[in-house]
Design brief:
heterotrimer, A mainly alpha (332), B mainly alpha (296), C alpha/beta (236), B: 296 residues, mainly alpha, 11 helices, C: 236 residues, alpha/beta, 6-stranded mixed sheet, 4-stranded antiparallel sheet, 10 strands, 38% helix
């Protein structure tokens, strides 16, 4: 890590820690929880799409698996929520591995659609299995028990926020480590030239499964946190269906793919626009939609890409990245 | 009612339900087959069609047929604007690597349209009890005019689209562009224009279907979510981009639903159809009815 | 001069030029051959002429008109017909539908379309027999002939052929090259790229030899023929 990068990371972390303390009350911590949750989920989507080109339109399904596994293990089996977080991770991972195996031979959009329907399958099953999950009536969940004298209550979200921040920052660091390692290098090599890497004798399927397992397992962990934090789980599309996946997707796209930290920008934009323009009501999401379309067309690499370019120019190294536009055919 | 009549009644109900699903998937299949993106704003185009229909028929008192034509024309124009203004430029910019970006772009369109509709019309449902009142009896079989119209219109739309794609020069150019855009260009076909037209036709279809189904799906801003999911299911089972497949898959799904509702109650139908879709995607990615050469 | 290319630079990446200053001329009614090893830049040159790849600098003139950067569909109206490397049929459409699209430029004139299709059927009767067959179901050689016939229906004054005989049996391959020769007889100019360098040199009026993005040798075909063995050895 360069000094610049190190100081930017420190600054960002300081901001994330300090912002909720700037005013009393529940408002800022609640908003920050939304941002960091979305960052975590967007980052995991990015870990799949941006590094290995796996299109996962079913992200919310793995969130759902983690959330319900954790909540049910606590309510039905009396497992401590601290263990429940791990159970959520395992549930996400198991569903992820199954989905990964199902989609191994599929390409691009087919992977996306399969994951999307795995998500819907899970959601429909949960809403139908009322005896176990209470369906659309909603499953109430426990809060995290007191730890080292810190109590987690729904009245005061600040401790929950720091717990989440710790989890998501840990995920960020872990993913960063993976991405920087030999495995990450192979991920990117496969993304850019799958056939080429296969010819070199690497087992592409294994690497894809590994990526799938890591991302979905961690998604399950986030889902488990979400369950204990939110208090009630309802299998609506807004919680665990297409709208939720759409949220995650747009956060990763606005932030910029292949960066991991870009999703933090995207999440801040999504939540920020909604909070800052609170008086505009429905217009907020119109603004967000227009913003998304604008970023897609104007900055194909997202805000992170735009910032990196700006940074390069600021530091002075020349880096004009305008690809030549070919009209129809790209190869000879 | 004897078993035979019940069976027939369920079959008719299923077919009319299936005709609706087929119609929902047809426009999406066309857009995927030609333009190469899954249009996630498809449900919102449908929703706008519902509103056009509502205002034409309920507010202005015009006949339903006029409403459907108006809905399809409005959405055709809207589709052309979306393609020219957003999708086309993105394709130009990203060339071969634009697939997922194209979906996210349609997500942006979806968010914008949904919330603009919320602002313009509010969350209330704008519906109508019946567009074509009355019913016919054949023996013990009851068929409402509504269902009859839906089935007939579905047949007409499908035959019309198929004839257009097969028999006209423009239709052939659209298919040619889908199969080999570079070769089409070399023959003088302006493929960018073709993409725009195809997207326009797909959206016009979504609008027309939204108008046609106003009785079943009243107009409200988030009606598109359910439509999108059904269209997805139909388009996948029929084979991505396969228009005939989408229609057949719609009918199949409708009949299956009609019979399964009569056999078992509860919400497990959705679970089963999701499972079916996963099965098709994994085992027969080209759809249930595909043969190698019958892509559009 | 029908086609005149001067000092063309083009490439796919930002910083590497595949073509490094290519100049080439085709006179009306002549058959010009372009030969070179794999990767010499022949296809890149073809793509640059036809508007699939925007050259970085240089000029492409067709009948004295600057056509550089013109998209392929507009280039057709200047009289350029292009047979792409690889298959370019519409595989799920019938032979007849494929041929009809060769008349896209005058699609309003039904009689003219019908007449043009009939002429093709007269020249290549097997296409008439298979007119309702999906093009993708025919053999590679048959598809190539369909492509060439369809190209000829656009009534080009300059025909660019990119590896027309690749992947075909020697017999079919020489039949196809004979067709290229037939175009010249019918009055069109031909720019022919083919891996069969000897055969190209036999057919052509004038030959260019390309290597690493540059024209290294050029001359009247009878001159080139004398040294063809040395040239071909260079490729390997």
């Amino acid at each position: 890590m360069s000094t610049t990068s190190r100081s930017i990371h420190a600054l960002a972390l300081a901001l994330l820690v300090a912002v909720p303390l700037m005013s009393d009350g529940r408002y800022l911590p609640t908003v920050m929880i939304s941002i960091v949750l979305l960052w975590g989920m967007g980052m995991l989507f990015d870990f799949m799409l941006g590094y290995l080109n796996i299109v996962n339109f079913g992200m919310a399904g793995f969130l759902c698996a983690g959330a319900y596994a954790a909540a049910l293990s606590t309510s039905a089996l009396g497992v401590s929520p601290w263990i429940g977080v791990l159970i959520g991770g395992v549930a996400g991972l198991l569903l992820g591995v199954v989905t990964g195996v199902l989609t191994l031979r599929l390409k691009g959009v087919y992977v996306g659609l399969t994951t999307l329907f795995v998500m819907e399958f899970l959601r429909f099953s949960i809403s139908s299995a009322r005896d176990v999950t209470r369906g659309m009536s909603g499953l109430t969940t426990e809060t995290f028990p007191t730890l080292f004298g810190i109590t987690f209550s729904r009245g005061d979200p600040l401790p929950s926020y720091y717990l989440l921040l710790a989890i998501v920052v840990a995920i960020y660091l872990a993913l960063k480590l993976i991405v920087g390692s030999r495995i990450g290098l192979l991920f990117r090599a496969i993304r850019d030239d799958e056939l080429g890497v296969e010819v070199l004798g690497f087992n592409i399927v294994a690497y894809k499964l590994l990526n799938f397992a890591i991302a979905t397992g961690l998604m399950g962990v986030i889902g488990a946190f979400y369950a204990y934090y939110i208090g009630i789980l309802v299998p609506t599309p807004q919680e665990f269906g297409i709208p939720r996946t759409v949220e995650i997707l747009t956060v990763a796209y606005i932030g910029g793919r292949g960066t991991l930290w870009g999703s933090l920008l995207g999440a801040a934009c999504l939540v920020g626009i909604q909070e800052v323009f609170r008086d505009l009501e429905e217009w907020r999401l119109v603004i967000y939609g227009v913003f998304l379309v604008f970023v897609l067309i104007a900055f194909p690499k997202g805000l992170a890409g735009a910032l990196e370019m700006l940074g390069k120019r600021f530091v002075g190294s020349s880096g004009e990245t305008q690809a030549p536009s070919t009209s129809a055919k790209s190869a000879a | 009612m004897s078993d035979g009549w019940i069976f027939l009644q369920l079959l008719i109900d299923g077919l009319s339900r299936g005709a609706m699903y087929g119609l929902m998937g047809m426009g999406m299949a066309l857009i995927f087959g030609i333009v190469g993106i899954i249009n996630l704003a498809h449900g919102e185009l449908f929703m706008l069609g519902c509103f056009v229909m509502y205002y034409m028929v309920v507010a202005l008192g015009l006949p339903p047929a006029v409403g459907i034509v108006a809905a399809s024309l409005c959405l055709f124009a809207g589709g052309i604007l979306i393609e020219r203004g957003l999708i086309g430029p993105l394709r130009q910019r990203l060339g071969g690597a634009w697939l997922v970006d194209g979906y996210v772009l349609t997500i942006g369109v979806m968010i914008i349209l949904q919330n603009l509709a919320l602002i313009a019309f509010g969350p209330r449902e704008h519906g109508v009890a019946s567009l074509w009142p009355g019913r016919h009896f054949v023996g013990e079989l009851a068929i409402s005019n509504e269902k009859l119209v839906i089935m007939v219109v579905a047949g007409l739309f499908f035959a019309g689209l198929a004839t257009f794609l097969r028999r006209t020069f423009l239709g052939r150019a659209i298919r040619a562009t889908a199969q080999n855009p570079a070769a089409a260009q070399v023959l003088g076909i302006d493929v960018r224009r073709i993409y725009t037209i195809a997207f326009g036709i797909g959206s016009g279809l979504a609008g027309a279907v939204g108008g046609l189904l106003l009785t079943t799906y009243p107009a409200y801003p988030t009606v598109g979510g359910e439509i999108l999911l059904k269209a997805f299911i139909v388009v996948i089972i029929g084979g991505l981009g396969n228009i005939r497949g989408a229609m057949l898959a719609g009918l199949l799904l409708g009949v299956l639903e009609a019979f399964s509702i009569s056999v078992a109650s509860g919400g497990w139908q959705n679970t089963v159809s999701a499972l079916l879709v996963i099965g098709v995607l994994v085992l027969r990615p080209n759809g249930l009815f595909s043969s190698q050469t019958t892509r559009p | 001069m029908l086609l005149e290319i001067s000092n063309l630079h083009a490439g796919y990446d930002r910083d590497t030029d595949v073509l490094q200053g290519v100049s080439l001329r085709v006179e009306p009614g002549s058959l010009v051959g372009l030969i070179g090893a794999n990767g010499a830049g022949k296809s890149t040159l073809m793509n640059s002429i036809c508007g699939f790849l925007r050259p970085r600098s240089g000029a492409v003139n067709m009948n004295g008109r600057d056509v550089i950067g013109l998209p392929p569909d507009e280039l057709l109206s200047t009289g350029v017909g292009y047979l792409m490397e690889g298959h370019s049929t519409f595989p799920a459409m019938t032979v007849e539908e494929n041929l009809a699209l060769g008349c896209w430029q005058w699609r309003g004139d039904r009689k003219r379309v019908a007449k043009a299709v009939d002429e093709v059927f007269l020249r290549s009767p097997f296409l008439k027999e298979r007119r309702l067959t999906a093009a993708g179901l025919m053999s590679g050689g048959q598809q190539r002939i369909l492509e060439i016939e369809r190209l000829y229906m656009t009534e080009p004054t300059l025909i660019l052929l990119d590896e027309p005989s690749i992947g075909l049996s020697p017999k079919l391959s020489s039949e196809l090259l004979a067709r290229a020769d037939g175009f010249r007889t019918a009055g069109a100019a031909v720019l022919l790229v083919d891996q069969n360098a000897r055969r190209v040199a036999e057919l052509a009026d004038y030959v260019y030899v390309m290597q690493l993005g540059r024209i290294v040798t050029e001359g009247a075909a009878n001159e080139i023929r004398k040294s063809i063995d040395d040239i071909v050895r260079e490729f390997i």
